């Protein structure tokens, strides 16, 4: 079995120490094979916030694959935003803005959906879209194929439609047709799992994560993370997404929901 920990929007600079301790304990107990971090690692892209994020990531029991979020670009430092927008991210988190991880049963493709010229909206170039499509088409049938980015591609609240990735209606079906199983994102601090459709009959899924550590929770949604489990047995492919929420009373993460995903292996 492959186990993945999906974190998003920790917003270091607003992190809560008790939640951070609980999350480290949760990760140590669950022992994921890989941690996927979908952006907004910091609150204001300051060096000290990135350093704290790096220290946290180094305590996790699994390697971290991350992509930047809009908060990871300087907001008030206009010179930095113009000439070196990802400087602190590259120094403290990763020099690679669009990482790829591949094993015999897993393919994870990172996509940088941020743009220095935009305050918060996400956008992709044709080159980025084609890169992801090409990598998905090259995947093997027994690999779980995941795309990670910061901006969501499906909303369950009308107010979040303005936060969706620009041109998601054109991009997502193309990736599904190329073989994507699961798209992970964050940005809106609202966790959910929903199906996605390709141009034909093929279906995929998207899983949103809430804020992992920040005090900037959304309404009555607590800090939360996703745990993804994938296993294969011959022709059978099993995948599930579990949402784990932080409980203030016990100061630990508790299982909130379990969603079994149907994986479509017909191209």
From TrEMBL:
The keyword Cytoplasm does not apply. GO terms for molecular function: hydrolase activity; metal ion binding. Keywords: Hydrolase, Iron, Metal-binding. Residues 2-190 form the Calcineurin-like phosphoesterase domain. InterPro entries: Calcineurin-like_PHP, CNP_phosphodiesterase-III, Metallo-depent_PP-like. Pfam families: Metallophos. Belongs to the cyclic nucleotide phosphodiesterase class-III family. PANTHER family: CYCLIC NUCLEOTIDE PHOSPHODIESTERASE CBUA0032-RELATED (PTHR42988:SF2), PHOSPHOHYDROLASE (PTHR42988). This is 3',5'-cyclic AMP phosphodiesterase CpdA. The lineage of its organism: Bacteria, Pseudomonadati, Pseudomonadota, Gammaproteobacteria, Pseudomonadales.
